[in-house]
Design goal:
3 helices, rod-shaped, about 180 residues, about 0% strand, disordered C terminus, mainly alpha
């Protein structure tokens, strides 16, 4: 009988040890699974954050490049306007000098009429040159604003700018555009 009790005790102990062993392995397995899951989750988060960061940097780079192109275009247009303004000034000065030379060299009884017509023609040429220059500047400004998305500033001053008047005085712009030249003989 004692042998049977010892055998039963041994079987019970073996079963307990086996249950403990299974429990230990199960806990280790669940911990390992949790660790693997945590590692995967962290890796996925880092990968997502990295992709977001790269996407943001790419967007910023595109915006910087666009801003730089717009800045370069605006500088170029500004330089062209300055150059055109200087050319127009030189043309006007040349025309006025030519008028002055005609006034001093053409002294005859009917030269007053010729000089008067010449002055009117010169004024017309000056006005045409100003209109062309203003139209070119408006076209460049419109292009700049189209690139930057701002077209509100152009609409108020465009119609008046072709006449050389401010928007407030554009209704009277067609009146009195000629320059009076008095020549005494």
């Amino acid at each position: 009988r004692r042998m049977v009790e010892c055998a039963q005790l041994k079987v019970r102990h073996l079963k307990q040890e086996e249950i403990e062993n299974r429990k230990y392995k199960s806990e280790n397995k669940s911990e390992a699974t949790q660790k693997k899951g945590e590692i995967k989750r962290r890796a996925a988060n880092k990968e997502r954050e990295l992709k977001e960061k790269i996407a943001i940097e790419e967007i910023q780079n595109v915006q910087k490049e666009k801003a730089k192109r717009i800045e370069i275009r605006q500088k170029r247009n500004s330089h062209r306007r300055q150059e055109q303004s200087k050319i127009s000034e030189a043309d006007m000065k040349y025309i006025k000098d030519q008028m002055g030379n005609r006034n001093t060299s053409d002294i005859s009884p009917d030269s007053g009429v010729i000089v008067s017509l010449s002055a009117e023609s010169t004024n017309l040429q000056l006005t045409e040159a100003q209109i062309k220059m203003q139209a070119q500047q408006d076209a460049e400004l419109e292009t700049d604003q189209a690139m930057t998305g701002d077209s509100s500033a152009l609409s108020s001053g465009t119609s008046a700018s072709y006449t050389g008047a401010s928007p407030e005085t554009s209704s009277t712009a067609g009146q009195g555009m000629t320059e009076n030249i008095n020549i005494s003989i």
